Amino acid sequence: RLATYSVAGEVKRPLVEVGFELTKRKGFAKKREMLTAILTKPFTSEPPSKFINLKFESPWFKLSKSESFNHQTTGKIAIIGSGIAGCTMAYSLCLKGFSCEILESKANIAQGASGAAAGIFHPQLTSDMNIGSQYNWQAYLTLLNFLSELNSQQKKSVILSQGVERFLKEEKLADKLIKLAKQLRITDWLQKSQLFPNNQRCVFFPHSATIDIHSFCQLLLDKIPSNQLSFSPSSQVLDLEYKQKKWTLHTENTQQNYSHVIFCGGANSALLKKLNIDSTNISRGQTCYFHSKKLTQKIKTTLMENIYLVPRENNYFQLGTTFENFTDDRLNQNSQTHMLNRASSFLKKLDLPHFSESEIKQIELNGTLGYRLHSKDRMPIVGAAIDREKINKDFNHLGQSQLSRSSLSHYNLPGLWINTAYGSHGLLFSLLASQHLISLICNDISPLSPALSQAIHPARFIAQSLKKQSVQKKT
């Protein structure tokens, strides 16, 4: 049944075509008439047209549905990678009753980019609340909801500091954010800074926090019953192949079969090309640990500008992070010196204790190092692994000729899933991404709108490439 205030012919005709029986009724208030309708014959979701309308449809996102997927028949699900993506994925799966096995190339969890930096989270909002802001805000609320359910001991084990002071590039950007907060009625979540009231570039996120990501990952795994989780360290997956409706994962010493595999690897994975994960880039991130009693007396919460400064235990601070495009698997002295110079300049502007050049030279080379995988649009890559060959075949003439609906199919590899490319927002993105992915696997309702789901879908870059090709062919 349905009801609508409109009685226009443009509304009535399509309803009649698909089998609704219409009745006009008295309208509300000044509205003279309204329309109600009851479906009186079997409804088919197939649109009347036999051709795809690319103005309103995106067939490359179409998935084949998982067959008989439940925790009694599926068996263990393989998760490749034990960073923030892999651990949140395991946690989300086990909440649904599934068992999983995490295969990790290193000896322990969160040893890559996830363990390299402090996990600072706050929503990345824009005045127009674009698609990126929408995902950020929903992910922010999802993470806050999870943290709110932890007991005091658990919170203490993962939260390094509460609240984030964010310094924007210009005063007008801070003004726009404050106005947006008032417009959206989220002034409890986003405020003018009280710690730096005279700095017009600074906004304060009181509910945001800085998290120890390694401890956070361990907390997630500790919440999983032991009979639902197995962890295989030092098990680098070198290749995978699909045979007889199973995925075979090849490590150096073993071959194992799974009905479902979820790739949660990062920048250094050898499987990126195999899984058609492209339109990405890699950045090197280095942090620095230093000791300062003077700063400890002044700073109790995280400060962020083009660097971040996180108070740690015993008068230590963690300073980060670099975004570099070279490869160096050891801590780099030039990178640390550059960070410390930027930090000193930043602190000096705030009239806080800072470093002289000689003090910077005396600070020991000490910190963390990791490589991040970024997508080119800075959104995560989450969804079914794509069948590039089938997409290229079916949409090779995109925009040149009509596409018959009957000739199209689904465009994912069955049982193979992707959850990666978080960039520098792994902590913020991970829980929502994992909840969305398990909804796809289980044919369940996603927490994301269709627009957000498509904005992070692995096929989005291929679709963009095909559209560009069609424009080039026309010109």
Shape estimate: globular
Main beta-sheet annotation: 8 strands, mixed
**In percent, how much strand structure appears in the residues?**
15-25%
Separation of termini? 48 Å
Number of strand segments: 22
Low-confidence segments, given as residue ranges, are none
Radius of gyration using CA atoms only = 26 Å
Q: How helix-rich are the residues, as a percent range?
A: 25-40%
The helix-and-strand class reads alpha+beta
Number of helices: 13
Task: Present the secondary structure layout.
Elements: E1 2-4, H1 9-17, E2 20-26, E3 33-39, E4 77-80, H2 84-95, E5 100-103, E6 119-121, H3 131-148, H4 152-158, E7 159-167, H5 171-184, E8 191-192, E9 202-211, H6 213-222, E10 229-232, E11 239-243, E12 246-250, E13 255-258, E14 261-263, E15 280-286, E16 288-291, H7 293-298, E17 302-304, E18 308-311, E19 316-320, H8 333-349, H9 357-362, E20 369-375, E21 381-386, H10 388-394, E22 412-420, H11 426-441, H12 450-455, H13 460-474
Parallel strand pairs: 4-5, 4-14, 5-10, 7-17, 14-22
Antiparallel strand pairs: 1-3, 2-3, 6-9, 7-9, 8-9, 11-12, 12-13, 15-20, 16-19, 17-18, 18-19, 21-22
